[in-house]
Amino acid sequence: MTAATSSGAAATGGLAGHLDGFVRAVREAGIPVGISQAVDAAEILTVVDLLEREQLRHGLAAVLLQRAAQRPAYDVLFDLWWPLADRPAVDPPDGDGGPGDDDPASTLDLPDGHGDEGDLARRMREELARLLLDGDDEALRRFARQAVDLLGRAPASPSGQSYFGYRVMRALSPDTLVAQLLAGLLADGGRGGLAEQVARQTVRERLAAFRAAVDAEVRRRAAAERGRERVARSAVRPLADQVDFLRAQQADLAELRRTVAPLARRLAVRLSARRRMGRVGRLDFRRTVRASLGTGGVPVVTHHRPRKVHKPELVVLCDVSGSVAGFSHFTLMLTQALREHFSGVRAFAFVDATDEVTRFFRPGADVSDAVARIGREADVVAFDGHSDYGNALEVFADRWPSAVGPKTSLLVLGDGRTNYRQPGLPVLADLVKRARSAHWLNPEPRRLWGSGDSAADRYGDVIDMVECRNATQLADFVTTL
């Protein structure tokens, strides 16, 4: 084997190992990647130009991702495993010049960082405005790399050099360039109309691209200091189906809504199937007797009249107290989705009192509006506004005694924290006894049940208590129901 062949084989092996590490990181981020997809990713390396970074990014995404919601996490990992490297100049000087050189003045004509800091920021701000007007994505990413090196560096610490994106943004203040950029994009076209709307959208997209490039460069430098795996654990946001309901933010709710809708449909199907399998129609005496003639009058096989299967009925009890604000938004979202698949869905919200909130969930109603109306109009607070499961259950049983019956599925959603008040176990046990099925979805980890003022462990003795902290666990609950 020649030296060139040996070197090529080593490079190929190194690239394969690097791709394997990247695929593992994608899988650890919660994106399912099978063996066949990993093989396809290896094939991508043979058909794309590896020097064209964006081509590689999109090629690997095409074979590794299944949903658009997975793309943000993927992009962060791609930037960590396949960082941007400066290409050498046309006539690189002898010595250290070459791909990956971190010299901040190697690609753009910028100050070397030894002059006045204010003058440096001013000149870089002018360069940024020019690049944003040109719209050259590659040049903008390289400028972001230089800006981090020149402006994002914090005072050295014993643990090493640190860089921060907010220092770059504070020095350059790109948001204050909007008026200048609009004037440059519109030129003599004038303000107003479709042209200005398009220009404003273009400015927003280019500013967002610059921020993303700065963040990616900061992560790259942090990864070089502390390791890619460690940075990935803190930089990659959980996927929507892995976000804890108690910590869900507004940006997660839209994706959660898309996740919850099919789960609600599957839940309705599961409950309907259990009802069909659990009960049969009334005995058809005439058909049974006729069939017994073939066995000497012995009714070996019995026949039953077909029973008309209705959509299951559902009663949902939702804790909407402040301690589970994020979870209550999800539970009301689930309630809205379930209304499409159950013949009779009745929703009840409670804090230390209970009120029926079904009226807020008409078809097409926005969940955020429903949550706001519940806070304003629903009678869910009787005393101090702190959770009181015992009183809430008693109010529900007294005011709506016929809400739960033999055809009803009962679904309770809450953390079971009673503020050291009576938990109302006898009332809950009676409701469970009267219902056809009953389940409690708890957003807290199982290890916390029974700690402090939590009565979840005692509630679990009378009702099926299920840990449900995210959409993945909700899917598991529906699957195993």
Automatic annotation (TrEMBL):
InterPro entries: UCP010256 (IPR011195), Uncharacterised_CoxE (IPR008912), vWFA_dom_sf (IPR036465). Coiled coil: none annotated. Pfam families: VWA_CoxE. Residues 89-118 are annotated as: Disordered. This is VWA domain containing CoxE-like protein. It comes from Geodermatophilus dictyosporus. The lineage of its organism: Bacteria, Bacillati, Actinomycetota, Actinomycetes, Geodermatophilales.
